[in-house]
Amino acid sequence: MEQKIDTAIDFPRITLAGLKGGSGKTIVSLALCSLFCQKGLKVKPFKKGPDYIDAKWLSLAAGCSASNLDPFLFPTHKVKSLFWSFANRHDLALVEGNRGLFDGKDIEGSYSTSELSRILKTPVILVVDCTKVTRTVAAMVLGCKHFEKDLNLAGVILNQTAGVRHRNITRQSIEKYTDIPVLGALPKLRENPIPERHMGLVSDQEHKDHDQIFSRLREIVSDNTDVEKILDIARNAPPGNEELSPVFSGPAGSVDDSPVIGVVRDKALWFYYQENLDALKSQGATLVELSLLNREAWPEIHGLYLGGGFPETMARALDENILLKEKLRRLSMDGLPIYAECGGFMYLAESLEYEDRCFSMAGIFPIRTRLFKKPQGHGYVKAEVVRKNPFFPLGAKIAGHEFHYSKCVPVPEDTSFCFSLSRGVGMSMGFDGLGFRNVLAGYTHIHAFGAGGWAANFVRAAIIYKNVCSAGSGPCPDIVCES
């Protein structure tokens, strides 16, 4: 019997948004998470949109795993159910938006941060980059307030202010022409406290002085914003009044002996939505973390999940781990269910070309990838499944996203793809997803809430593989998902 969450449940919350990407909302979000935690509050961080790196930094700042929310990647009722499921376990929620406040996939602003804030009835605090602008900021704030109905614009934080005069004119202009409070004004910083690379912030895997970074962010924001007033805004958010279904459903049948699914998590591959992992566990799987970089023997596994990441930064180490590459080729031939996304797909290819060098990869697929200086695919993906595989039934519609600086060079003409894309770039000519035996790999990232029965089908395939191994009846046959 499905349980419903109590109506009128209180969950203090704010959304940090910007007028554009790079406005400073990530720095403010990280600082506020850390400051609220210092006050003894249990903070649940969320990242709007498809993003792994900002979400990981939010997790570190809050000491709690961040969750992604995106009305495109999964249905609105799932957005609500996931968000409100944390209400009784946390004191406050902080949602970091993405891109500009009203930017979505079309001119209507579909799936934008502003739409998400209305779905969750969340007060919005706007972080504005004030570089080379003063009074005009008031016009921008006034425009944001009136651009869409039912937006709860609760305050503004000025960023990149040049000095006292700049701050005073900008603040006074907003106070004169709008009724939106200015909650703080951050000075120009000589350098970003967290370095960036082509996909945004450098990953936490490459920065180990987290305490020093968060200490600096806390100092900047606490000295230049009214943290208590921001906290009051969060506490004055209206209570939730939705009837919500459970976030996860259990397996269709009993799982007497859990299959073991390996999840690669190391410096090369670490892009995973926590809910994807939780969905696999909810279907009865036991997850074990593995690495492609060390030489330690792996435990027995019945499925393998390779997420995205930056395999190019560890290309030499991946190339040199020859025994593991040979092991993966044997496992793929034996019918091990393997699901790989973006960086994980690149590892399963023949080679990876990066900075004028060619590195050998696992070689499960007869295809090469090459890194370029500009994105080769970036944005939401809509896919239809057009080839049989263990994870999705034929004809299934999948919502996903892609962000890759690599592409396949070249794609053989006789390549048979699993996904036909009505939106997105994929590997070639609007197609994505390569299949071999029980392996499926492509550039498309999925979220379990927008990918039908992916988790249940993955676990089912792992159980079949385990049973074949236990019976000692040779390689596992090709597994086909029927529903």
Keywords:
483 residues; alpha/beta; Rossmann fold; 2 domains; ten-stranded mixed sheet; seven-stranded parallel sheet; 25 strands
Uncertain ranges = 197-201
User: What proportion of the residues form beta strands (DSSP E)?
Assistant: 25-35%
CATH overall fold name of the largest domain: Rossmann fold
Largest sheet: 10 strands, mixed
Class of secondary structure makeup: alpha/beta
CATH architecture of the largest domain: 3-Layer(aba) Sandwich
Which strand order spans the largest sheet, edge to edge or round the barrel?
12-10-13-15-24-23-22-19-20-25
Helix fraction, binned, reads 25-40%
Under CATH at level 1, the class of the largest domain stands as Alpha Beta
CATH superfamily of the largest domain: P-loop containing nucleotide triphosphate hydrolases
Instruction: Specify the number of helices.
Output: 13
How confident is the prediction overall: mean pLDDT? 92
What topology emerges from the helices and strands here?
Elements: E1 13-18, H1 25-38, E2 43-48, H2 53-62, E3 67-69, H3 76-84, E4 92-100, H4 113-119, E5 124-129, H5 136-147, E6 153-161, H6 164-177, E7 182-187, E8 196-197, E9 200-201, H7 210-224, H8 227-235, E10 260-264, E11 269-271, H9 274-282, E12 286-290, E13 303-306, E14 308-309, H10 315-320, H11 322-333, E15 338-341, H12 343-348, E16 351-354, E17 357-360, E18 368-371, E19 377-385, E20 397-404, E21 406-408, E22 417-423, E23 431-436, E24 439-442, E25 445-446, H13 454-471
Parallel strand pairs: 1-4, 1-5, 2-3, 2-4, 5-6, 6-7, 10-12, 10-13, 13-15, 15-24, 16-18
Antiparallel strand pairs: 8-9, 11-14, 16-17, 18-21, 19-20, 19-22, 20-25, 22-23, 23-24
